[in-house]
């Protein structure tokens, strides 16, 4: 039987850091400093240094990072936050949780990201923030809107840590950038986690208070926050894994380039059966996912599963058509680019340790499905 190819194989990289991670976890256990231990501050400093911003405030998850960022701006009832309809649910869920209104926009069909023009066109007097998403590992290029927006911009950078736009990493464009350390992310922990990157000292201080129920000093609450702290054990592991992030990003980009070459040679693109990822000018894509647009997606996914190749659909339903947002009044056809993407996208394996023979086999299997 042909060896299966997983969509993501976290175990393939484990040997690089396993002993160090276990030793770091043991130190935390022996010190019994499980909450806000010294490893948290060390990791925050290392992360801030990696993206060259003054402040990184760790959080309990990428979702809580987005939530806390909106809370830091006092987003609430009757406010509007403009964001993309093609993203993971948390992007819009955090807006609704605060009583604010998600205002959705369509995407660029090539990059899957919202455009500056679309976000700007959705601004109203009630808009409190813009929330663009750097989807699949490529930063959204909002052009002049990054500097001219009349409201704060929060970068949803859950999938794009390590990516750059015109030479600058995430955290250098909006007021804040929220990142995720979910295990499948570019920098994944041994559980959940997240962080907010910012260049604003006032926001960093407010975020550090919000994550401990809004208290400073302890038991003195001037604002209502939440329990958004990153576990010390996660910080200890992430500090070690951060050392490998550039190497892993380079590995995924290398694999993506081979896919690009093989798909171009296969005839699949010329026949309009497959479209490979589009890169924006001035962008370096770190490929948290390598996402194709394909004909007959659902049958192709079933075929690939039968051939032992892991795939995933990110995302099958756009946010504006999710049942929980029906009260917003959106309908089929409102955002055609996103709706088409939901029917066509398919992520294939691209993790750094994936061997070239496996990449060739993935392309061969897709070609076999279309009988090329």
For the record, the CATH architecture of the largest domain stands as: 3-Layer(aba) Sandwich
At the fourth level of CATH, the homologous superfamily of the largest domain is Type I PLP-dependent aspartate aminotransferase-like (Major domain)
- CATH T-level fold name of the largest domain: Aspartate Aminotransferase, domain 2
Computed structural class = alpha/beta
Annotation keywords:
Aspartate Aminotransferase, domain 1; four-stranded mixed beta sheet; Aspartate Aminotransferase, domain 2; 13 strands; 372 residues; three-stranded parallel beta sheet; globular
Write up what this structure looks like.
With 372 residues, the chain is an alpha/beta fold. The chain is built from 13 helices and 13 strands. The chain folds into 2 domains: 11-243, Aspartate Aminotransferase, domain 2 (3-Layer(aba) Sandwich), CATH 3.40.640; 245-369, Aspartate Aminotransferase, domain 1 (Alpha-Beta Complex). It has helices at residues 11-14, 18-31, 38-51, 62-72, 90-97, 116-121, 145-148, 201-210, 232-241, 245-266, 297-306, 336-344, 356-369; strands spanning 55-59, 80-84, 101-105, 127-131, 154-156, 164-165, 168-169, 176-180, 194-198, 274-275, 283-284, 290-294, 345-348. The strands form 4 sheets. The chain has a 4-stranded mixed sheet with strand order 1-9-8-5, sandwiched between helices. Helix 2 packs antiparallel against helix 9 (232-241) and helix 4 crosses helix 8. It starts with 10 loop residues before the first helix and ends with a helix. The mean pLDDT is 97.
């Amino acid at each position: 039987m042909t060896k299966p190819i997983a969509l993501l194989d976290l175990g393939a990289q484990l040997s690089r850091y396993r002993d160090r991670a276990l030793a770091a976890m043991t130190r935390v256990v022996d010190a019994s400093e499980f909450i806000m231990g010294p490893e948290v501050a060390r990791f925050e400093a290392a992360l801030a240094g990696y993206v060259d911003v003054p402040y990184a405030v760790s959080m309990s998850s990428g979702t809580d990072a987005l939530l806390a960022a909106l809370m830091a701006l006092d987003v609430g009832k009757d406010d509007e936050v403009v964001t993309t309809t093609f993203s993971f649910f948390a992007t819009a869920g955090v807006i609704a949780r605060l009583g604010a209104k998600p205002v959705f926009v369509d995407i660029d069909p090539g990059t899957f990201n919202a455009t500056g023009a679309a976000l700007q066109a959705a601004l109203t007097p009630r808009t409190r923030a813009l929330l663009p998403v750097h989807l699949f590992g490529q930063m959204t290029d909002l052009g002049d809107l990054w500097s001219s927006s009349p409201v704060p911009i929060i970068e949803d950078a859950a999938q794009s840590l390590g990516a750059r736009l015109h030479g600058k990493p995430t955290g250098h464009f909006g007021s804040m950038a929220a990142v995720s350390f979910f295990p499948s992310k570019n920098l994944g922990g041994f559980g959940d986690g997240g962080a907010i990157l910012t260049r604003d000292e006032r926001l960093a201080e407010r975020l550090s208070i919000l994550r401990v129920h809004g208290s400073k000093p302890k038991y003195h609450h001037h604002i209502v926050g939440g329990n958004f702290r990153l576990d010390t054990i996660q910080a200890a592991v992430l500090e070690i894994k951060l050392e490998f992030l550039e190497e892993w990003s380079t590995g995924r980009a290398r694999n993506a380039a081979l896919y690009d070459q093989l798909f171009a040679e296969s005839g699949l693109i010329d026949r309009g059966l497959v479209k490979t990822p589009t890169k924006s000018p001035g962008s370096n894509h770190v490929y948290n996912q390598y996402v194709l647009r394909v004909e007959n997606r659902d049958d192709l996914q079933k075929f690939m599963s039968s051939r032992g190749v892991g795939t995933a659909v990110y995302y099958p339903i756009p946010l504006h058509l999710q049942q929980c947002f029906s009260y917003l009044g959106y309908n089929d056809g409102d955002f055609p680019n996103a709706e088409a993407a939901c029917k066509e996208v398919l992520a294939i394996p691209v993790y750094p340790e994936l061997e070239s023979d496996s990449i060739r086999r993935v392309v061969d299997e897709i070609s076999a499905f279309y009988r090329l």
